[in-house]
Amino acid sequence: MRISVQSTPFDYGAECSRFGQGGRDVGAVVTFLGVVRDDSGSLARMEIEHYPGMTEKAITAIAEEAKARWKLADILVIHRHGALEPGEAIMMVATAARHRVAAFEAAEFLMDYLKSRAPFWKKEIGADGADWVAAKDDDETALKRW
């Protein structure tokens, strides 16, 4: 299991290739890439803040829960912080399991957690100023299914 909270970009293809190696008992690998999107058409950048140590600890705890709940062989979570422009990779989740259902469900669980509960604070900077990103009802609803 690897959890990385970092300011530097990552190579999604390389991470996917590295993650999928080995494991003779692994029958499914699921990956997800989250990208900064510009819903308003005027986003210059998104600034993501976190508390080092606390964030990694919180993500590790939820990843360990996912690993036990779905009997995962491996988990990778990368989440960036700092200033990110539209189109840049913001995070990735990868799960490996014996069967595809477990890999898919665990990946969705982790993504729902990262979107709703991981201790990150996001501010959108645009032509009209800056606004903190508020929690969305859809994200809270998605998390309730787990």
Taken together, the total number of domains comes to 1
| DSSP, total strands | 8
The percent of residues in helical segments reads 25-40%
Largest sheet: 4 strands, mixed
Radius of gyration: 16 Å
- What is the CATH architecture descriptor? Alpha-Beta Complex
Helix count from the secondary structure assignment: 4
CATH class: Alpha Beta
Mean pLDDT: 94
Q: What is the string of SSEs from the N terminus onward?
A: EHEEHEEEHEEH
Look at the helices and sheets and give the structural class: alpha+beta
Portion of residues in beta strands equals 25-35%
For the biggest β-sheet, the strand order reads: 1-4-6-2
At a glance:
34% of the residues lie in helices and 35% in strands. By secondary structure, it is an alpha+beta fold.
Structural notes for this entry:
This protein has 146 residues and is of the alpha+beta class. Helix content is 34%, strand content 35%. A four-stranded mixed beta sheet has the order 1-4-6-2, with helices on both faces. The longest helix has 17 residues, at 54-70.
Give the topology, please.
Blueprint: E1 2-6, H1 12-19, E2 28-35, E3 43-50, H2 54-70, E4 74-80, E5 82-84, E6 89-97, H3 100-116, E7 120-126, E8 129-132, H4 137-144
Parallel strand pairs: 1-4
Antiparallel strand pairs: 2-6, 3-5, 3-7, 4-6, 7-8
Features:
single chain; 8 strands; 4-stranded mixed beta sheet; 146 residues; alpha+beta; Aldehyde Oxidoreductase, domain 3; 34% helix
